[in-house]
Amino acid sequence: MTFISDANAYLRRYNHDFHKVGRVLKIQYLVNICPQTFGTSPGWQSEAVAVPQSLAAPLILDENFNIDRKVVEKREAWIETLDTSAPSHQVGLIHLHPKVFADYPRLDIIHENAVWQQKFRMVNTAHTKLRSEVRGGGKKPHPQKGLGRARHGSIRSPLWVGGGRAHGPRAFTTQFYMLPFAKRIRGLTSTLSAKFSQDDLKIVENLDLPSDEAGYLEKLCEERCWGPSVLFVDDTDLMPRNITIATDTIQHVNLMPVYGLNVHSMLKHETLVLTVSAARRIEERLLYHLNRPDFYKMNNERFKK
Q1: Per-residue pLDDT of the chain (305 residues; tens, 9 = 90+)
Q2: For the region Disordered, what residue ranges are annotated (predicted)?
């Protein structure tokens, strides 16, 4: 009885913040408890703990992951909102799969992915001429025999000064090579896990901003301590209007669809912000590839240019 009275007094005092209290403490389960008998009574209802209609939605986005709970536990993350006028920026919890967001971060695989992404954009433009491309040198410089000199057929031979270059660099050559499929997938899971363990991965409801001003988004990132660079990821490439306009003039805040997520972009930005739908899509695709029978057999052969 004392506990119920204290709870009612607490809610009367902080009635303006009931939405937050109801989400965090789940006070809605106390509305049918009778203070006289400490039992449930359908007819008894307290006005102080009346549950608003907004709390009818599920507070925890749970997933029935097929994992061994004795070995590893599923991870939990706050679901935040981008509306600064809300009573609390934390509006719920989401359960994340440990194989995607709690994998052991292989720094060597992350480094291989980063180097691979840097090199496949590089094109070698250095160019040297062969002996047939150098101007002149058509006539034989001296007779083949009789003078005691070495045999030469052209003054543009690589043996001569001003001649062509043997086995020199030729434009345009690429440094592209195909990284094995397993390392590409493990690179994504390792980077996501490292971001999550460092508290640099945030989950939001959606990317709906109440304002299209760039100052609003910069102030939001500063209040949330998201760092100087932020990457927003959604499950579609059609982003909301306000956040598209707000990020247009901010070079260190970028938008990306979920199918373009890569290791280089996650390392380049200090904070990674995923929508709930994007997080579920990432889990779906990565778990599919991690559990496929030919996971370690794909793209193991060296790429032939």
Answers
A1: 444 445 444 444 444 443 443 433 333 333 333 333 333 333 333 333 333 344 445 456 666 666 655 557 888 999 999 998 877 888 899 999 999 999 999 999 999 999 999 998 899 999 999 999 999 988 999 999 999 999 999 999 999 999 999 999 999 998 888 999 999 999 999 999 999 999 999 999 999 999 999 999 999 999 999 999 999 999 999 999 999 999 999 999 999 999 999 999 999 999 999 999 999 999 999 999 999 888 877 766 555 55
A2: 131-151
Judge whether 251 and 243 are in contact, CB under 8 Å. no
All structural domains of the chain = 1-57 (no CATH), 58-124+176-305 (3.40.1370.10), 128-168 (no CATH)
Please report, for residues 66, 109, 150, 161, 177, the alpha-carbon distance to residue 263 in angstroms, rounded to integers and kept in the order given: 26, 10, 58, 48, 16
Q: Look at residues 211, 206, 210 and name the one whose alpha carbon lies nearest to residue 235.
A: 206
